[in-house]
Amino acid sequence: MAVYGFPHAGSATSVQRLSLEEMSRKSPTIVVARCSDVSSDWDGTRNLAFTRTTFTILEVVKGTTALTTFTVRMPGGSHDEEVVLFLTGPDGDGFPWVMGLAQGCYRVFADPATGKRAVRRSLTGLNLHDGTHDGSVFKPAGQPTQSLETFLQHITRLVQTAVPSRQEDRK
Questions:
Q1: How far is CA 104 from the centre of its chain?
Q2: Out of 32, 82, 110, 111, which residue is the most buried by the measure of CB atoms under 10 Å away?
Q3: pTM of the predicted model, to two decimals?
């Protein structure tokens, strides 16, 4: 099963590379969630197809929410059953986005070596740049697997020590 809502392997999308620290600081909400529904629709001009994926929140890692479910609308689309998502605030239509496209989506799965829950993200179809204007592009290699428990502990530490940048303070 492919990570949902991201470019297909035949095409590439360029986005700014974000570290785990940046995503932890910039995302107002980080959750562990399970996919509960998937549907497709078009933008208002019917020029761009979207996948709407509804998730049931299993655990809130950062932020507060009274919601038990939420829907993310992204271009393209397939999905995973359980994920850790770094989310933006809602867009003009009320939908949060996954931070940095696939960079903010970690698939949760049972590690065959240990039987424990683990996470990994897929950046297939993304070219990442470092924010400079020199045109350099980073093509991500395979992504490491780590235990879900260790990953969430690391994020929690990052969130607790995060200091907003001055630019974020002005938003």
A1: 2
A2: 32
A3: 0.69
